[in-house]
Amino acid sequence: MTIQVVKVTVSVPSELVKMADKVAKERKTSRSKVVASCLEELAKKRLEAELEAGYRAMASDEQREKEALEWAENTIEDFENAKG
Is-above-0.85 flag for pTM? Predict the structure, then answer.
């Protein structure tokens, strides 16, 4: 699989550049790969947060459906009991 690479110019505080350079040296890689790795991690965390929010919404919907079904069952039961 070929990954398309695009050059970008960004302004970053000097302390972050120093940290990126230190990490790059420790990992024996380039500053660009360190920055790309950080962006990948950010993207992964955002996706996980979005998925979690979606699952929570689905669970909430399921709970409301369950409560509605219970209410309907109770209402039918009450109606049948009132009929005789």
Answer: no
